[in-house]
Design brief:
Elements: E1 5-16, E2 19-29, E3 36-41, E4 61-66, H1 67-73, E5 83-88, E6 92-99, E7 102-109, H2 110-123, H3 135-143
Antiparallel strand pairs: 1-2, 1-7, 2-3, 3-4, 5-6, 6-7
Length: 144
């Protein structure tokens, strides 16, 4: 049985009203962190890289936010703080990621996000997230 839902999709990083660049985004859902989804972007798209280029490990930039936020944003604008999700014309969904270094606007095909969410719900149905939470492990991670 699969223990994670992971899907790599093509998206567009919006650079200006008339320019965008294609990028690969890996979406991940882990049942042991049932309230969250992860979006991993290639390191070369980081806004805070050193002047001499990507770091030695070339690690992806990973954003973690609520699965519920991603699902809600497919239908209506959703989000407060650093992550906002909203539907747009043409069966697309925009994800806005805000950091001190700047803001990134990424456009996804809504069908890709729906498929990913459907796969995550096969692992942990909506409303059953509390059954997969490990409060002791979460507290231990917080306290280091």
């Amino acid at each position: 049985m699969r223990t994670t839902a992971e899907e790599t999709v093509q998206a567009r990083l919006i650079l200006s009203p008339h320019r965008s660049v294609r990028l690969r985004v890996t979406l991940t859902y882990l049942p042991e962190d049932p309230l969250a989804v992860r979006m991993a972007f290639p390191a070369e798209f980081s806004l805070d890289e050193p002047a001499d280029g990507p770091g030695p490990d070339g690690a992806d930039i990973v954003w973690v936010f609520a699965r519920r936020l991603l699902a809600a944003g497919l239908e209506l604008p959703a989000g407060i703080g650093d992550v906002h999700v909203r539907p747009t014309l043409g069966r697309r969904t925009m994800v806005e990621l805000r950091a001190p270094e700047g803001t990134a606007l990424v456009r996804f095909d809504t069908a890709d996000l729906r498929r990913f969410l459907w796969r995550s719900r096969l692992l942990v149905p909506e409303g059953e997230e509390h059954l997969h939470l490990d409060a002791d492990r979460a507290l231990a991670e917080l306290l280091g």
